[in-house]
Amino acid sequence: MTSSATLADPWPAPVATGPVEAVVSLPGSKSLTNRALVLAALADRPSVVRRALRSRDTMLMAQALTALGAPVDTSTEDWAVTPLSASAGSVAAEVDCGLAGTVMRFVPPVAGLVDGTVAFDGDPHMRNRPVGEVLTALTALGVRVDDDGRGSLPFTVVGTGAVPGGTVVIDASASSQFVSALLLAGARYEHGVDVRHDGKPVPSLPHIEMTVAMLRDRGVVVDDADANRWAVAPGPVAGRDEAIEPDLSNAAPFLALAAVTGGTVTVRHWPERTTQPGDLLRDLLGAMGCRVSWTADDGLTVAGPGDGHRGLRGLDVDLHEAGELAPAMAALCALASTPSHLRGIAHIRGHETDRLAALAQELGALGADVTEHPDGLSFRPARLTGGVFHTYADHRMAHAGVVIGAVVPGTLVEDVATTSKTFPDFASFWAALL
Ligand SMILES: O=C(O)C1=C[C@@H](OP(=O)(O)O)[C@@H](O)[C@H](O)C1
Ligand SMILES: C=C(OP(=O)(O)O)C(=O)O
Questions:
Q1: How far is CA 356 from the centre of its chain?
Q2: Cα separation, 414 vs 8, whole angstroms
Q3: Same structural domain for residues 234 and 319?
Q4: Residue 396 C-alpha to ligand 2 middle, in angstroms?
Q5: Where residue 416 sits, what CATH number does that domain have?
Q6: Residue from 133, 324, 352, 414 carrying the catalytic annotation
Q7: Is 313 annotated as a binding residue?
Q8: Residue 355 in marked binding region
Q9: How many whole angstroms from 166 Cα to the centroid of ligand 2?
Q10: Domain count, the chain
């Protein structure tokens, strides 16, 4: 086994010697874990988050909530959360957002409910990721935010222990997390929160549906009957004991491994129904020529075409709802035997890195025939050769790199350890399959 402590950098991506046959159990969902933690911190009694994802993003969330006065006990697989308490007294906390969008966007609305000052900062690139709409909205809802007016990290939220709340209009076209952030804390605001979107379409709508579903599971009344409007009624958030589903977006490189090698990969415990956008992989991989099947006992199984990536059809798809799948899908499109076009994903330029520029650069450097568009990427079939694949501190760039490396000998993935953002020991897990 390759441990992250001994990983070569750049890391020679393992090459498949034949069709990969594997059954994998994947770690929990980042999005579900971090929402469950936030809601547990706001709840009326202690909660347990079972099978929580233990990764950089979720540890940062646990540390942030603990600093705000809602201790998260991460000592076992099931994380116990003690909610924020009104009697906790004044806090002076610092929150490290790392490169976690969910920490930078979801925690400030919680900090408004705390009595004290909460200073936010993060990794160097995090200062470029958008958050201004959340800060402006919080100000309009009655929370004091001190920043330098750029609408980005670093900033300080000065909470008084109570937030008036009310109606707010934001432009959430850069990230669905702006909406989720306000909804998650909104029930604890005196008048709740009524969030309206005005702007180009909101991306990643399944992630907002995930937020709404988790609020309703905790007894919160949410009105999402109208497009571009979400209203959360004021009221308690019920504490819960919840098991976290496997991370279906992180399943992408593993299912892609079946696709490119002509093998068969099963992801166990794949839910029959879910709000995770990773579930779209069933359709996407099916459209590329894979056989996809699901059973309650086994999970989701993907079988690649007989001749592996040479038999993969290209894909013409709008990924606006599931932009986080774009890096792995781009790797498949670069290897496919017919042209592809991934559209509707301008917003992923604001992810961990500018993913459209990074994918075009790195796949192109290996010989892919890729064109970068303002809102996507297109590909024509090409023969790839090995080389260094840079990752820009982006876990999903590393996923794209290892998928390519599985069938393109000589691919070296730089900083593969960046995968620790959402997947502990990804490289050793991956290497064990090839
Ligand atoms: O709410 C969430 O958990 C997420 C929402 C999406 O963000 P964007 O809407 O910014 O794409 C997604 O890409 C991200 O990985 C997780
Ligand atoms: C966009 C992503 O992450 P974040 O939660 O940091 O926005 C991602 O994981 O693809």
A1: 17
A2: 9
A3: no
A4: 9
A5: 3.65.10.10
A6: 324
A7: no
A8: yes
A9: 28
A10: 2
Strand stretches in 189-255, DSSP E: 193-197, 222-223, 229-232, 241-243
Domain that includes residue 385, residue range: 4-28+246-431
Q: Is the pLDDT confidence value at 1 over 50?
A: no
347 pocket-lining for ligand 1 (C-beta < 6 Å): yes
Q: Is residue 421 a known part of a binding site?
A: yes
* Pair 341, 372: CB distance under 8 Å: no
Distance CA(120)–CA(185), nearest Å, equals 17
What confidence tens digit (pLDDT) does each residue in 25-50 have?
A: 999 999 999 999 999 999 999 999 99
Site of tokens 């038999």: 311
Instruction: List pLDDT tens digits, range 88-105.
Output: 789 999 999 999 999 999
d(C-alpha 260, C-alpha 262), whole Å: 6
What tens digit of pLDDT does each residue of 133-163 get? Answer: 999 999 999 999 999 888 999 999 999 999 9
Q: How do 115-121 and 91-96 pair as beta strands?
A: parallel
Amino acid at 26: L
**Angle at which helices 30-41 and 101-111 pack, to 10 degrees?**
10
